Amino acid sequence: MDNQFFKGIEKKTGVNMKDILDLANSLQNANFKDEHTVRGVIRRVSQIANKPVSREMEDKIVESIVKDGKQLDMNQISKMLNNKK
After folding, report:
1. Do 2 and 21 form a contact (C-beta atoms < 8 A)?
2. Disulfide-capable partner of 17 in 6, 28, 34, 62 (CB 3.0 to 4.6 Å)?
3. Pfam families under this entry (predicted)?
């Protein structure tokens, strides 16, 4: 993709696109039935987005993905992070 495109996203979000692309690559073969893996992903997304996630919220996200059999949906995680109290 165009380098200017990524620079524009970085400027708007404050998130380094290399971090996002690295995360996306790591998700390709991840086992989302494994609680440890899912917690790691949640923590990584939280770190990249600079949005702390409480243990309670992390547990809810993990349950939604691992226990309820839902697929990892970055939009859902984003909504949960934005709606945290």
Report:
1. no
2. 6
3. SpoVIF
Q: Copy the structure tokens of residue 58.
A: 């992390």
**Interacting residues of 65 by C-beta distance below 8 A, sequence separation 6+:** 32, 38, 71, 72
pLDDT in tens, 61-84: 888 888 766 665 666 666 666 665
pTM of the model: 0.69
Task: Please report, as a single letter, which amino acid is at residue 57.
Answer: M
The pair of structure tokens assigned to 15 is 């998130």
How far is residue 50's CA from residue 7's CA, in Å, rounded to a whole number?
18
Average pLDDT over residues 11-37: 84
How many of the other CB atoms lie within 10 Å of CB of 71? Answer: 8
